[in-house]
Write a structure and sequence with these properties.
Blueprint lengths: L1 H25 L4 H10 L3 E5 L10 E8 L7 E7 L5
Parallel strand pairs: 1-3
Antiparallel strand pairs: 2-3
């Protein structure tokens, strides 16, 4: 019984670590790709920041998710865009 509990706890920890790294990796792409990924996951996306350029030229500085996919969740995406593009 102890081995099963240890295996379940270990699997949960590895899953949580993988999800955390996946979120970090996603933030390295252009803002347009990140918005598309979040939309594909079922999130409504709200952009925060001044969008002075095409979204593909903007960087994502932060992502906050509110709710779980499938329950009308929202992802708040902070963007930083270059001026004059």
């Amino acid at each position: 019984m102890r081995m099963i509990v240890s295996a379940v706890i270990g699997a949960g920890a590895m899953t949580a670590a993988a999800l955390g790294l996946a979120g970090t990796a996603a933030a390295t792409g252009g803002a347009d790709a990140i918005v598309n990924d979040l939309s594909a996951e079922g999130f409504s996306v709200q952009l925060n920041g001044s969008q002075t350029a095409n979204l593909s030229a903007c960087a994502v500085t932060d992502i906050k998710k509110d709710g779980a996919p499938g329950s009308n969740p929202t992802a708040y995406v902070d963007v930083s865009c270059p001026d004059g593009c």
